[in-house]
């Protein structure tokens, strides 16, 4: 298995991975090739892919605002889970963020994502009980679709 920085040339393989995961949510604009390319340019070297058997089997979009890091779309193909790929990718991202002097990282996991929530708990992340998460849609064309 190879863990390396994600490049825009990986987009098709990453998108295919995203589409293979039941319940995975994608935004029409943010998760388009153009949206991901913009994200990768703003956060060079932080995002990661895992490659095995010649295909992308895991990925994380990782970035920061200069103060806090954030992980997005953390996923491993169902056939490759429980082998340490997710943890290895998270460690990769944490090291990249530390290089940029980022000292705190957050992520959002859907409450119905039992597998993901168990993963974060297992590797030592803390579920926050002391805050609410809010968002505001600036562009209503950025439609969210959940994979079935």
From TrEMBL:
GO molecular function: acyltransferase activity, transferring groups other than amino-acyl groups
PROSITE patterns per the UniProt record, alphabetical: GNAT (PS51186)
Coiled-coil regions, chain positions: none
Residue ranges occupied by any N-acetyltransferase domain in the UniProt entry: 1-143
Keyword Transferase set for record: yes
Keyword Transferase: yes
A matching Pfam family: Acetyltransf_1
SUPFAM superfamilies tied to this protein: Acyl-CoA N-acyltransferases (Nat) (SSF55729)
InterPro entries: Acyl_CoA_acyltransferase, GNAT_dom
Keywords in alphabetical order: Transferase
Name of the featured protein: GNAT family N-acetyltransferase
Phylogenetic lineage: Bacteria, Bacillati, Bacillota, Clostridia, Lachnospirales
